[in-house]
Amino acid sequence: MPVADPAARARFLAATRFNEQGLVPVIAQAHDTGEVLMMAWMNAEALEETLATGRVVYFSRSRNALWRKGETSGQVQQLKDLRLDCDGDTILALVEQQGVACHTGRRSCFYQALREGELVPVSTPEVDPAVLYGR
């Protein structure tokens, strides 16, 4: 869902309230199932590229660089819809996830839950992370 109109992209960017580090949190959700896949950050450049290309781009705080989802793992996210919350400070990205979303090899990063007072995994990896990242 690339947004071809630069003025429309500019309006979305202008409505977005970035934090003091110039970032905004983004929740990635599967467009078809509603499953919450992951949370990451975008800066203005990542948001602009996401809107322009339709391929989801985040900002990696650890690398201090753009992170084009799937760049090394092949687990790309294609944008289906992008929504801004009522305060303008959180984005919901409805995506088509190719493969798994989590670097642990799981479909979703949200795989830990309290069960009988213990934090336990509620899903198993679908793919070995070493295969995803060539380690």
From TrEMBL:
GO terms for cellular component: cytoplasm. SUPFAM superfamilies: HisI-like (SSF141734). One of its GO terms (biological process) is L-histidine biosynthetic process. Binds 1 Mg(2+) ion per subunit. Mg(2+) binds at residues 85, 87, 89. It is an enzyme of class 3 (hydrolase). GO terms for molecular function: magnesium ion binding; phosphoribosyl-AMP cyclohydrolase activity; phosphoribosyl-ATP diphosphatase activity; zinc ion binding. It holds the Pfam family PRA-CH. It catalyses: 1-(5-phospho-beta-D-ribosyl)-5'-AMP + H2O = 1-(5-phospho-beta-D-ribosyl)-5-[(5-phospho-beta-D-ribosylamino)methylideneamino]imidazole-4-carboxamide; 1-(5-phospho-beta-D-ribosyl)-ATP + H2O = 1-(5-phospho-beta-D-ribosyl)-5'-AMP + diphosphate + H(+). Homodimer. HAMAP family: HisI. Catalyzes the hydrolysis of the adenine ring of phosphoribosyl-AMP. In the C-terminal section; belongs to the PRA-PH family. Belongs to the PRA-CH family. This is Phosphoribosyl-AMP cyclohydrolase. It comes from Teichococcus coralli. The lineage of its organism: Bacteria, Pseudomonadati, Pseudomonadota, Alphaproteobacteria, Acetobacterales. The gene is hisI.
